[in-house]
C-alpha cells in the first residue's frame, strides 16, 4: 500500500475517478443505515426478555427489607439491587445509591445540585463568577451537553492511550480553584475504547485540588462491557484508591444497566463516600419518595447476582464482537498503510474512534450520508461540538445487523478515501 501523500497528482486523480464510480454504484443501492448512536441491537435487547417473566401477578413482590415493592418506601434502593449494582461497580453495598432508569439523569442531578446548593456545604456554583470543567477529548457528547447547559466553561484535555493527559489535569486541578470537576469514562471510553492505566488512576487519586468542592465524575458506563473473553482491560477501583490517598470525597462514580438490560428502562446508580452520599440523600428525599422498586426487583431476580450478570454480558459480547471485527477488518484492509486515518481497536465498550486527516471529518460524515449512512455528527465528541482539528469520527457498530455493518464499513472507507484525496489535491 502506498501512502496517499506519496502519490502524484495524476495518480490521485485517476484513483479518485475509480472511487467515484464505486461510490455511485453504492449510492444507487439506496441504502439507509444508522450508525450514529451506541444503542444495543434488537438481538441484544432480546437477551433480557426473560426479565419480563420474573415478576408475574403470582410473584412475591416483597423485597429483602420486607417492603412491598408495589408501594412507597425505601428511598435509595432495595437491598438486592444495591448488592447487584455494588458488585457491578466494585464498591461496598453501603456506598451506593440506586436511582431511576438512567445514569445520565444522576449526573445531571449531581451538577444541578452543585449549582444550586453547592457540594457538602460549599458555595453553590451558581454564585461563583466562573466554574470550569475539564473534558477529556474526544469524549461523550451528552456529558458536554450537561456542563454546557449550566454555563460551565469546558476545557479540552487531550486523551492519550493511557487516559487523559495527566500533566494537564494536575496543572489545572491543583492550581485553579474554578476547576470543579472532570468528566471521565475510565473504561472502554466513549468513543475511543481506552481504559485508564494504573498510573493514570493513581495520579487521579493523588490529585490535590485547589477547590475543596472539586469532584471527579467517573462514569464507568462500560465497566463490564468486554468484547473478548481472552483480552480484557482492567481498571483500578477509584473510590478505594481515593480513600487510600486521603481524598475519600473526591469522586462520584456512576453506572447503569442500560447496556446490560434495557436502555431507558434499566437502573442507574451512584457510588461515593459516606459524606457525599449523605449530602445527596438530603436532596433526594425532597425530590422523590423512592424510585421504581419493581424494576429494581426485576433486575435483581433476573440476574441473581454479579455472576449471572457477567454470564449475560458474554452473550452481549458474542453479538457485538463480529460487528466490531467487521469494521476493524475493513478499516485495516481498505485503509491500512494509506496514512489517511488512524483508529484504535477497542477491547470493549460501544465505539470505535476514527481520526481522519485534519479538516476532513465533517466532509467524510457528509459524504457517507450521501450514500445513505448516518454517522454521529463530526465534532460531537468535543465540547461545544467543536473539534479543533475536524478529524474525529465516532463509529457505533452495535445497532445495525452484521450484514448492514459490512455495507456501512464499505461506505465509510470509500468516503474517507474520496474526501482525503480531495484534501490532498487542494
Ligand atoms: N455514559 C456514557 C459514557 C455513555 O456512553 C452513555 C450512553 O451512551 C451513558 C452514560 C448513558 O447512560 P444511561 O442510559 O444510564 O443514562
Automatic annotation (TrEMBL):
Entry's Gene Ontology molecular function annotations: transaminase activity
Gene3D superfamilies xref list: Aspartate Aminotransferase, domain 1, Type I PLP-dependent aspartate aminotransferase-like (Major domain)
Claim: Transferase is one of the keywords in the record: yes
SUPFAM superfamilies registered for this protein in UniProt: PLP-dependent transferases
Protein name: Aminotransferase
Phylogenetic classification of the source organism: Bacteria, Bacillati, Bacillota, Clostridia, Lachnospirales
InterPro entries membership: AspAT_Ic, PyrdxlP-dep_Trfase, PyrdxlP-dep_Trfase_major, PyrdxlP-dep_Trfase_small
Keywords: Aminotransferase, Transferase
Keyword Magnesium: no
Amino acid at each position: 500500500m502506498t501512502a496517499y501523500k506519496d502519490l502524484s497528482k495524476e495518480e490521485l486523480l485517476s484513483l479518485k475517478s475509480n472511487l467515484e464510480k464505486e461510490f455511485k454504484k453504492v449510492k444507487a443501492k439506496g441504502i439507509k443505515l444508522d450508525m450514529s448512536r451506541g444503542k444495543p441491537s434488537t438481538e441484544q435487547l432480546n437477551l433480557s426478555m426473560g426479565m419480563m417473566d420474573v415478576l408475574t401477578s403470582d410473584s412475591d413482590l416483597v423485597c429483602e427489607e420486607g417492603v412491598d415493592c408495589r408501594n412507597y418506601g425505601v428511598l435509595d434502593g432495595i437491598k438486592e439491587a444495591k448488592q447487584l449494582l455494588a458488585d457491578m461497580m466494585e464498591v461496598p453495598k453501603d456506598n451506593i445509591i440506586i436511582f431511576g432508569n438512567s445514569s445520565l439523569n444522576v449526573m445531571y442531578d449531581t451538577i444541578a445540585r452543585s449549582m444550586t446548593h453547592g457540594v457538602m456545604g460549599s458555595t453553590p456554583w451558581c454564585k461563583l463568577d466562573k466554574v470550569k470543567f475539564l473534558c477529556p477529548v474526544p469524549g461523550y457528547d451528552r456529558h458536554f451537553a450537561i456542563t454546557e447547559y449550566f454555563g460551565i466553561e469546558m476545557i479540552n484535555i487531550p486523551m492519550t492511550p493511557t487516559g487523559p493527559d495527566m500533566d494537564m489535569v494536575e496543572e489545572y486541578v491543583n492550581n485553579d480553584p474554578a476547576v470543579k470537576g472532570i468528566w471521565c469514562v475510565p473504561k472502554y471510553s466513549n468513543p475511543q475504547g481506552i481504559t485508564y492505566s494504573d498510573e493514570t488512576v493513581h495520579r487521579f487519586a493523588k490529585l490535590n485540588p485547589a477547590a475543596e468542592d472539586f469532584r471527579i465524575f467517573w462514569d464507568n458506563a462500560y465497566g463490564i462491557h468486554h468484547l473478548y473473553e481472552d483480552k480484557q482491560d482492567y481498571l483500578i477501583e477509584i473510590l478505594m484508591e481515593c480513600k487510600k490517598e486521603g481524598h475519600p470525597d473526591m469522586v462520584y462514580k456512576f453506572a447503569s444497566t442500560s447496556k446490560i438490560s434495557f436502555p431507558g428502562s434499566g437502573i442507574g446508580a451512584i457510588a461515593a463516600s459516606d459524606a457525599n452520599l449523605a449530602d445527596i440523600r438530603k436532596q433526594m428525599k425532597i425530590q422523590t419518595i423512592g424510585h421504581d422498586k419493581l424494576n429494581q426487583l426485576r433486575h435483581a431476580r433476573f440476574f441473581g447476582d454479579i455472576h449471572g450478570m457477567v454470564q449475560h454480558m458474554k452473550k452481549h459480547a458474542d453479538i457485538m464482537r463480529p460487528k466490531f471485527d467487521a469494521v476493524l477488518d475493513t478499516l485495516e484492509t481498505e485503509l491500512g498503510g494509506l496514512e489517511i486515518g488512524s483508529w484504535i481497536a477497542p477491547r470493549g465498550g460501544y465505539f470505535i474512534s476514527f481520526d481522519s486527516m485534519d479538516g476532513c471529518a465533517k466532509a467524510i460524515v457528509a459524504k457517507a450520508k450521501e450514500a445513505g449512512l448516518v454517522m454521529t455528527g463530526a465534532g460531537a465528541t468535543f465540547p461545544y461540538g467543536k473539534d479543533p482539528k475536524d478529524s474525529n469520527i465516532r463509529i457505533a457498530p452495535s445497532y445495525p445487523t452484521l450484514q448492514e455493518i459490512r455495507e456501512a464499513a464499505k461506505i465509510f472507507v470509500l468516503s474517507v478515501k474520496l474526501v482525503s484525496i480531495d484534501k490532498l489535491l487542494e
